[in-house]
Amino acid sequence: MLTDLQLTSHSADETRQLGEHLGRLARAGDVLCLEGDLGSGKTCFTQGLGRGLSITEDIHSPTFILANEHRGGRLLLYHLDVYRMSGSGEAIGIGLDDYLFGDGVCVIEWAEKIREALPAERLWITFQHLGENERSLKFQASGMRYIELLGIIARSREAFGDEATLV
Ligand SMILES: Nc1ncnc2c1ncn2[C@@H]1O[C@H](COP(=O)(O)OP(=O)(O)OP(=O)(O)O)[C@@H](O)[C@H]1O
Ligand SMILES: [Mg+2]
Asked: Which of 19, 67, 109, 130 measures 20 to 30 Å from 32, CA to CA?
């Protein structure tokens, strides 16, 4: 059973394509946790995810609110950025669970800041800056749903474009 997968993206477009691929596979209730430094590609990936869900409106990080809700796609997308949260307690206090257990796909940027408040079953994606246009994306699946999802991603490398490398 595949629980870990590491990919290298060579451009912002390639990261969007990865997100788009996942967006096409996503189901209501999926929780995707994104970890990584400023500018490592979390929002870029989420933009692709929105495209994969056929969401046409602009996706950018929710700055002063907990979440943006994007409607009009195949599924609802909850896009959270918890960079400014003090921790799990604050996130729970302002309604995190409504998004985690809501009727849509939930994507959380800076998920490591609220790790204790997140469900044990999730897909965790760690972004790392390797160079100007290179990013490493490490996927870690917890729970059957996400192990299956990772298996599909691993089997469909061609969907990531010719340049994507599995390492
Ligand atoms: N391979 C790549 N994948 C993703 N982004 C890339 C890549 N190469 C260059 N970039 C650039 O890096 C930046 C990534 O910004 P993005 O907003 O997605 O980061 P972020 O992780 O969401 O940061 P923040 O923590 O500030 O929200 C963009 O300007 C994008 O064009
Ligand atoms: Mg961001």
From this structure: 130
pLDDT at 59 over 90: yes
Domain region containing 65: 4-166
Pocket residues for ligand 1 (CB within 6 Å)?
Answer: 9-12, 14-15, 36, 38-44, 61, 109, 127, 133-135
Secondary structure class of 155 (helix, strand, coil): helix
DSSP assignment of 105-147, as one string? EEEEETGGGGGGGS-SSEEEEEEEE-SSS-EEEEEEEESHHHH
What does pTM read for this prediction? 0.94
Q: How many residues does the chain have?
A: 167
Q: What is the CATH number of the domain that holds 118?
A: 3.40.50.300
